[in-house]
């Protein structure tokens, strides 16, 4: 009998320790943006706009002096659309004698950003994102975040809550096309190439949730591969409601607590007819980067 690959569940339960080990591992590098040309400033403005729904992402402008870095930040104002001017507080400046005038993405770790907290952790590595050149790009997500990613991006999930809780980790592309992340053979999970992106649903429950248990049962032999389970297992419709688009629904979730079905789905079930109970459920979305 061929042994099954080690499930991601071990990494989920390891929580913070697994994340520390991953941070120390060698991963792909990214290069900073060159701000010495107008094209570099335009590129920075585009990246900032695309990352506006990533709560724990900031940007660094580095120059030989703080005055030069501040001047570049002032130049950036004319490159941002009026809708994106509120992103300027996310730009930090620093002086560095090496490297010229550059910019890169930097994660915010451990600081209170005002975004919802969750006992789950999600980190995304995208080699296409601009980095300082000597550090990997690993961006932590907050619940309800929406991050655009390139085709080589991967993500990792961990859990730091109570070990005795029931853990549910799913990724969904099209309605009902679901994979059980706890069964994935890779610790660093490749982001889907689906044009619709992927919605990550991570839940923690003190008591088993019949709905989530039914999804796990339907995926029991999938070993982390995606299966088209049909609309009766549509996570986004059952959990978040329909009609306004996934982005609008994600933004409507109060903190990390949402109502989820406790009854197993049936062909005639609707969101309104299912009994609901509250549990910690954290939702993230990864979309293809333009």
Structural class: alpha+beta
Q: What is the arithmetic mean of pLDDT? A: 79
Beta percentage is 25-35%
- Please describe the biggest sheet, giving its number of strands, its sense, and whether it closes into a barrel: 7 strands, mixed
The low-pLDDT segments are 1-8, 10-27, 242-265, 269-277
Tell me the number of strands: 15
Write a short abstract of this structure.
The protein has 290 residues and is an alpha+beta fold.
What does this structure look like?
With 290 residues, the protein is of the alpha+beta class. Strands 7, 9, 10, 12, 13, 14 and 15 form a 7-stranded mixed β-sheet that branches. The model is unreliable at 1-8, 10-27, 242-265 and 269-277 (pLDDT under 50). The radius of gyration is 20 Å and the shape is elongated. It has helices at residues 9-14, 16-24, 38-50, 66-77, 210-218, 235-240, 246-251, and strands at residues 33-34, 57-63, 91-95, 102-107, 120-125, 139-141, 146-149, 154-159, 166-172, 177-180, 189-190, 198-205, 227-228, 257-261, 276-288. It folds into 2 domains: 1-24 and 115-290, no CATH class; 31-109, 60s Ribosomal Protein L30, Chain: A. Helix 4 links the parallel strand 2 (57-63) and strand 3.
């Amino acid at each position: 009998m061929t042994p099954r690959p080690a499930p991601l569940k071990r990494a989920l339960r390891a929580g913070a320790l697994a994340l520390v080990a991953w941070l120390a591992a060698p991963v792909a590098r990214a290069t900073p943006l060159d701000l010495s040309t107008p094209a570099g400033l335009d590129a920075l403005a585009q990246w900032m706009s695309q990352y506006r729904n990533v709560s724990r992402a900031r940007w660094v402008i580095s120059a030989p002096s703080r005055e030069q870095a501040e001047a570049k930040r002032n130049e950036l104002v004319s490159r941002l659309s009026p809708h994106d001017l509120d992103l300027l507080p996310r730009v930090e400046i620093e002086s560095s004698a090496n490297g010229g005038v550059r910019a890169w993405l930097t994660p915010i770790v451990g600081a209170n950003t005002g975004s919802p907290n969750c006992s789950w952790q999600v980190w995304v590595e995208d080699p296409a994102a601009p980095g300082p050149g000597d550090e990997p790009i690993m961006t932590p997500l907050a619940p309800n975040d929406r991050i655009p990613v390139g085709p080589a991006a991967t993500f990792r999930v961990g859990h730091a809550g109570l070990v005795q809780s029931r853990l549910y980790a799913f990724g969904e592309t099209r309605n009902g096309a679901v994979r059980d992340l706890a069964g994935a053979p890779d610790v660093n999970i490749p982001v889907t190439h689906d044009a619709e992106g992927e919605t990550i649903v991570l839940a923690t429950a003190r008591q088993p949730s019949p709905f989530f248990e039914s999804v796990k049962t339907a995926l029991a032999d999938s070993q982390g591969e995606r299966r088209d389970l049909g609309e009766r297992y549509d996570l986004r419709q059952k959990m978040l409601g329909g009609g306004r688009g996934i982005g609008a629904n994600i933004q409507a979730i109060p903190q990390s607590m949402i109502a989820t079905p406790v009854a197993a789905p049936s062909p005639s079930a609707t969101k309104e007819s299912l009994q609901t109970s509250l549990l910690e459920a954290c939702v993230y979305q990864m979309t293809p980067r333009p």
